[in-house]
Amino acid sequence: MKIGNSAAGHAGRRDPYDYPRSWEADVVLSDGGTVHLRPIVPSDADGLVAFHGRLSERTRYLRYFGAYPRIPQRDLERFSVVDHHDRVAFVALLGDDIVAVGRYERLGDGPSAEVAFVVDDAHQGRGLGSILLEHLAAAARESGLRRFVAEVLAENSAMVRVFRDAGYQVSRAIEEGVLHLEFDIDPTEESLAVARAREQAAEARSVYNLLHPQSVAVIGASTDPMKVGHAVLMNLLEAGFTGTIYPVNAEHRAVRGVRAYKSVLEIPDPVDLAVVAVPADQVESVLDGALAKGVKTLLIVTAGFAEAGPHGLHAELRLVGEARAHGMRVVGPNALGVLNTHPSVRLNATLAPKLPSRGRAGFFCQSGALGTAILADAGARGLGLSTFVSAGNRADVSGNDLLQYWETDPDTDLVLLYLESFGNPRKFARLARRLGRTKPIVAVKSGRHAVRPQLASTSVEVDEASVQALFEQAGVVRVETLAQLFDTALIFAHQPLPAGPRVGIVGNSSAIGLLAADTARAQGLKLAFEPVDVGPQAGPDEFAAAVREALISPETDALVVVFVPPLATPGTTYARALREAVHELDTQKPIVSTFLAAEGVPAELAVPGTDGAPGRGSIPSFPSPERAVNALAKVVRYAAWRQRPQGNLLRPAGVHTEAAQEIVRELVDDVEDRNIVLEDEDVVRLLHCYGIEVVPFRVVSSADEAVSAARELRYPVTVKAVDERLRGRPDLAGVRLDLASEDEVRRSYHDLREVSGEDEMYVQKMAPKGISCFVGLQDDPSFGSLVSFGLSGLVSTLLGDRAYRAVPLTDVDAATLIREPKSAPLLTGYRGDEPADLAALQDVVLRVAALAEDNPEVRALNLDPVMASPEGAFVANARIVVGPPPARPDTGPRRLRAINAPD
To answer: Are 135 and 117 in contact, with CB atoms under 8 Å apart?
Structure first.
């Protein structure tokens, strides 16, 4: 926007300090650093002048189409005083300095606005332009704008590239060296894909910076072997870290023979990673020094923050907010640490005494207390790791950040997670679904039933079978214990994926073979053939021959080898024979065993890998056939998920997102921290925005009004009590159906008047006869918003015969959701009935999912009943609860998880 252009409309917000707090965000840039983004306010005027003064002449010329050496007072006021509606500006702050500004101004009273931004020369090339464009577009859509226009000098290739690469359809015209660009700002499939790709690259880079430091400072390095600072320093040294280590100790000139510095500021070279091992009350002063030094990442092993109570939480939030605002990421507090086994790094910045063997598994752990045990267990079982992060309180760097990193990390093929809670469950589901297509994710999820207070009023417990299905929907292999996690990880790490569920069993004990077969059937696996028992007298060659024959069989997708050592021949001889037979075949079928009662990968079954750890092709062994088969079953289910069609994330036609969000904002503005049940009129309005129409009804207060409404709606009609409890109680009969005359309507009204004691009733047009279904929406602490489906009625409710999917839904998710309940065959023409219109039912499900994705303030929704008939799907009743969302949704422009977001 050139100087002198003006916007005509100022119908929106007037107070220049009053802007939507949701517009404020911490964002990760392309180099992994962070800045704080917020709308401009008048007190930023001095910062704007300083920012403008740092711009080069070239940058000022490209932005303002002229020299513009200083900002005149009139322009300064115009730039810093905006209404946050028709005139919006964002500043990107690094510490107290403005490093970028983006703004738009509405053109006249129409739906278009002119957009422009400028970035400090020292921060160009970090992705700030695309970040500003995303946030400006989101703010503009909230203000009712639909289109951006921009005028850019043709020679300003960097700015042209920002618009061109944003994923919008940009029209261009050039006149006298000035490009005129126009584009609609509604999200497109391409613009969303561009934003997701940039988010992945930026967040992955920030984790890369953490795991590949060239220098590490240990702040609090101690000469006392009992101190944490001593342990971290020793572990870094003994692991053979390939970078430079700087102990920071105010009292000693050297620690363990390494020169020490009194403060991080005295270190002469840049510091990539600072490990903080000082008491909690000293961490804030340490942060000040690290910020002044320009440290990229702070790893805080110190405890005494959020886990210690409200005061600790307050200190933690202040600490992380300050760090992010100055471009720094934080791991912890209360973290065990991070490690990277790559030979070019060899980083062990943890409290664990030994660097694990190098492998292909990345491990994220929330619990610092369990971290040391996890690393020891991995080593004992022969599971090598690529990287490990124990994030403690997870105030900043989280499991989602690690998923972004591991997606493109060439050294990681398998992801292991120990999670106690999700900071952003919707984002976790999205990232896991994408990553799981190429790399297995195995997760221990504890604390599922510890529901957050924010969810207590709307969260309904989901049965364990559905929880399992929800994790599988996201491509996550869910396990209950760390032992199960390692059991499953051993197969993923060392064996190929099975092509199907057919399992062969070969062994030298019929009893153990039958036990393996029973477990396989219980897990839904298919036996390729009856268990083969070579007998306890069979020698190693005969045993190996039976294994070879089973693997060659086209009926076998995977093999379980069960073995009891005979007295005459050492078991190690059989193990070597097995390994050689498998190696000769070079089969792509996974093999698990119960060999020598070993747990892990015994040396006789191992194929040498890197750093002495067992490599691909090693055969894992389990102490019992049940554990071997249970772990194999999880791998089989994951392989089947990977083979299924992914489906597409569809936006149903006829959705009016902006109108819906305006309705929701209007309703939620005054509820403070409460949830409210919407009035009928608001329910109908909101559903209408998503193309969900409630069967026409009227609210009446007398028999005459009921008759008049029935006449208007046209017979047949139904009369229903307003009280939901009466409508749901067969013994109280709060509903009268198929009323075809005035007399029936009057009689029904009077009957219900006696039952309910209320004058007010519903009169509704009768929907076509069909199967009564339920479509719902609810919050869940593990997955965010869930869409549920089942057949209506007491029996289905009692038996928990409902299926669940996490938002967002693909077309495949919606199609499988309505077919998953045990009673679903009733919809497809059971016993010769005409099938319901499943496509119409699927469409309703997708529209509910879109509503949930766009409006996190919708805390619960019930469409019950939805009449599924050959003519379509008809919503007869709806209930919606709105309130403050439990956490930031995974929609809108890129941003880090809010530092005060609940876990």
So the answer is: no
